[in-house]
Design brief:
The complex is a heterodimer of chains A (403) and B (380). With 403 residues, chain A is of the alpha/beta class. Chain A contains 17 helices and 13 strands. Chain A has an eight-stranded mixed beta sheet, with helices on both faces. Chain A has a five-stranded parallel beta sheet with strand order 2-1-3-4-5, sandwiched between helices. Chain A is elongated. About 6% of the residues of chain A have low confidence. In chain B, α7 packs across α18 and α12 packs parallel to α13. Chain B has an eight-stranded mixed beta sheet with strand order 8-9-7-10-6-11-12-13, sandwiched between helices. Chain B has a five-stranded parallel beta sheet with strand order 2-1-3-4-5, sandwiched between helices. In chain B, α14 links the parallel β11 and β12. Classes of the chains: A alpha/beta (403), B alpha/beta (380). At the A-B interface, α12 of A face α14 and α16 of B.
């Protein structure tokens, strides 16, 4: 067993210090955690004590993040600096990393992230690797979930929107929702948003003045951040496959879950999204033979793309609808079973639209909302691959969702 | 059964002439009565021979200058003239057909292709005037394919003309499901052979629904759709147009580049939007603005609102009529079950349930279309 490390938190907020100390209390790597309220006090402290890790709150950095980080690394080259940043301040994070910080955490802090970041930093850090560290910071940590379909009108967008909302409620984490149905995307219509910025604004930004795409996201009720589709169908071509890759990769670094609604069928942009997705929710209904035919064509193509069963999840929407087609027959024909089943409830869907709310918030107790909740839980718990748990959701959870 | 077919070859180049002669001789019951490079010589030699087929080299400038087709037809009004050429040119074809030729064949050709060309003009003469009618939709599940398929039936029924149905929903074309046909060849093969195709040969790439309606099917899988470029689709569409008085095209949902290109090449575009929710009206408005920005003329585009649930919303439609640039041609009711049953039964609505409001609504569009086509044909 190696020597244990000491941590220093430099932040004006005691709560942040307490959070970090709490998060590290179980750690075998850290045996001591100190707190200083100002940058000067922090710099004074490191003269006598030599902390191995410094959590540096971006708000205290003076005159700027870059100078402050360099000040610490110059005095104590072997120490590892983790920046505590506000969400959306990618500029500060980049400046810190370029000046020698080895990682960052977004406020408000998440216990498990603090622990994971510290572990990673202690395990991996070598000073020469600062440049690759920038890359590793930019590698995705968020889960990418896309909704896909081969037929319109099967509930793809409904599921994407309600799922994103529930993921935010359930996990309390950062969720973004990208409307990549680029010609006639409906995400903002479902959420009754009138976004001032869309993906088109990002696409047509001046290259010399490259902004992070995060600045083009719009918050919905401070619950999820939405990247809106172009307002005009002809603008869809401005969003290229390589651009969507860039966007998704960046957002997956920032958000815990990136939910993406796609255009029906296989488009150039759509294929990139499917490729990057951790989970593809392939949404279907069994209204007619042509639906089943297109389900089969979609499955065959996804198999040809070598996407495995733990990536593609068949969703059967409106599974209680009376159709001439039996679920079992279809499952046998496509040699796959529906991993997720969602009930049909036009009344709730219509009421939610009227009430200008997502269905799962408008009537969380209805079967259809509960089915999407089950889906969201399985995503959070990482059990989408396994058979669906039939356990009913507790009353407590329903009450909490209503509140 | 073919009787003896007497054939004349007029071809400038010796080598090609010999090649054609051997192709003609190889066909049983075909009798080559003359091969020459001169129109005058042919006309002289033909006297009393009563040829049925003349293969005429359209690459020879002399043939154009002397109005060869007209000259031949003046003497032998019932002869079938097949023009031959090294390259396919749509304008040429129209002029040739207008002058009275029956078909167009790319050189060199096989015995089989020649036979097919002759068969094609026997039952299916190439047409100087034709209408391409395309159905587009910003979002699927609006009944677009139901509309396209039943328009084909309706127009056939109303006009008595043969109708071609082209499935340009390249990834997920549903026409075979709707018509319960099982195409063995598709647009993929037609596209592959595009450079050696002539319109009469395209017939062999079509699948018959019945005697009067033929389908060019979409690829069998989405991956194959990639093989077909927009320009390929447009060339095939031109061939279709020279085979049928009416060509109906079903497209993929969305207004992607290839769909817009097809719409652009069409005489009539039906913009089909479901009227289920306020979202749909947004899609409709966006689509109208898009088409306007592309300068689609007012007389070309018609709006078809489908899946309408409430009869009492006439106010909305009256307001829409004023607001939207393009005329609304029909309001189709939401008879989802009726439409679905027709799909599952593989019998189109106009045949299976001709008296439903939905079927009658679509038939109404077909009647209007047939009327306006008749009017414009008269004008020409």
């Amino acid at each position: 067993m190696g020597t244990r490390s000491r941590a220093l938190v430099i932040s004006s907020e005691e709560r942040i210090f307490l959070d970090i100390r709490q998060a590290l209390s179980n750690s075998n790597d850290i045996d001591q955690c100190e707190w200083k309220e100002t940058l000067i006090a922090g710099l004074a402290f490191i003269r006598q004590s030599k902390p191995n890790i410094i959590f540096l709150d971006e708000e205290l950095c003076f005159p700027d993040v870059s100078t402050a980080v360099k000040e610490f690394t110059a005095k104590l080259p072997e120490t590892r600096i983790i920046l505590l940043a506000q969400m959306g301040r990618r500029d500060k994070i980049d400046a810190a990393i370029l000046s020698g910080a080895v990682g960052y955490l977004l406020k408000p802090l998440d216990n498990s992230e603090v622990e994971a970041t510290v572990q990673r930093v202690l395990a991996n850090f070598t000073p020469e690797l600062t440049a690759p560290m920038i890359q590793s910071c930019l590698t995705q940590t968020g889960k990418i979930i896309s909704t896909f379909s081969t037929v319109d009108g099967v509930g793809k967008t409904t599921i994407a929107v309600n799922l994103a909302v529930l993921l935010a409620k359930l996990s309390g984490k950062k969720i973004c929702l990208i409307d990549a149905d680029l010609q006639f995307g409906d995400v903002c219509r479902f959420l009754h948003m009138d976004p001032s910025l869309t993906i088109v604004d990002f696409a047509s930004r001046e290259a010399v003045n490259r902004h992070s795409c995060r600045e083009y996201l719009q918050s919905w009720n401070e619950l999820i951040d939405v990247f809106a589709a172009p307002p005009k169908p002809e603008q869809s071509s401005l969003v290229t496959p390589s651009m969507i890759v860039e966007v998704i990769k960046e957002l997956a670094c920032e958000y815990n879950y990136v939910v993406i609604d796609t255009t029906v069928g296989f488009t150039d942009v759509g294929l990139e999204i499917l490729e990057l997705s951790n989970s593809i929710l392939f949404v279907n209904t069994l209204d007619s033979i042509s639906c089943v035919k297109n389900l089969r064509l979609g499955m065959d193509t996804l198999r040809d793309l070598k996407y495995t069963q733990d990536k593609v999840h068949l969703v059967l929407n409106r599974y209680k609808a009376k159709t001439a087609i039996g679920i079992a027959e279809v499952e046998k024909a496509i040699n796959s079973s529906f991993a997720v089943k969602i009930g049909n409830d036009f009344a709730t869907a219509a009421g939610a639209l009227q009430a200008q709310q997502p269905m799962v918030l408008y009537q969380p107790d209805r079967d259809v909302s509960q089915d999407i909740l089950t889906l969201a839980k399985r995503i959070v718990e990482n059990t989408l691959i396994d058979n669906p748990k039939q356990s009913s959701i507790t009353d407590r959870l329903s009450r909490w969702l209503k509140g | 059964m073919l009787q003896e077919v007497r054939v004349v070859i007029i071809e400038e180049f010796r080598f090609m002439r010999d090649l054609m002669a051997s192709v003609v001789r190889a066909i049983p019951d075909f009798n080559l009565i003359c091969q020459t490079s001169s129109l005058e010589e042919a006309l002289i030699k033909l006297s009393g021979a009563e040829p049925q087929v003349v293969l005429l080299d359209m690459d020879m400038p002399a043939m154009r200058e002397k109005n060869a087709i007209t000259s031949i037809l003046k003497i032998y009004p019932s002869v079938n003239i097949l023009c031959t050429s090294q390259r396919w040119d749509e304008t040429d074809v129209r002029l040739i057909i207008q002058a009275g030729a029956k078909g167009y064949l790319m050189k060199p050709f096989s015995s089989e292709e020649l036979l097919q060309a002759i068969k094609a003009f026997e039952g299916n003469p190439l047409l100087p005037v034709s209408e391409i009618i395309t159905v587009i939709s910003p979002k699927g599940n609006s009944g677009k394919t139901t509309l396209a398929v039943n328009l084909a039936l309706g127009i056939q029924q109303e006009t008595g003309h043969k109708v071609g149905l082209m499935d340009a929903d390249l990834q997920f074309g549903d026409i075979p499901v709707f018509l319960n046909i099982d195409p063995t060849v598709t647009i993929v093969e037609a596209n592959r052979d595009i450079n050696s195709l002539s319109p009469s040969v395209l017939v062999s790439y079509l699948t018959a629904y019945n005697k009067n309606i033929k389908v060019l099917a979409a690829p069998r899988s989405p991956a194959l759709a990639e093989l077909i470029s927009t320009s390929g689709t447009l060339s095939i569409l031109k061939y279709m147009r020279s085979l049928f008085r009416y060509v109906i095209v079903d497209t993929a949902s969305g207004l992607q580049e290839d769909t817009i290109a097809i719409a652009n090449a069409s005489n009539r575009v039906y913009l089909n939007v479901a009227y289920n929710s306020v979202f749909d009206l947004d899609h409709l408005r966006q689509s109208v603005e898009f088409l306007r920005s592309l300068n689609f003329p007012q007389e070309k585009v018609r709006i078809v609102l489908s899946r309408i649930k409430t009869r009492g919303s006439m106010d909305i439609f009256n307001r829409l009529r004023e607001e939207l640039f393009y005329p609304i041609s029909a309001l189709l009711p939401n008879q989802f079950q009726v439409a679905t049953d027709a799909i599952n039964g593989g019998v189109p609505l106009l045949t299976a349930k001709p008296n439903t409001d939905l079927a009658l609504g679509i038939l109404g569009i077909a009647k209007d279309m047939a009327e306006s086509a008749k009017r414009s044909a008269k004008l020409e």
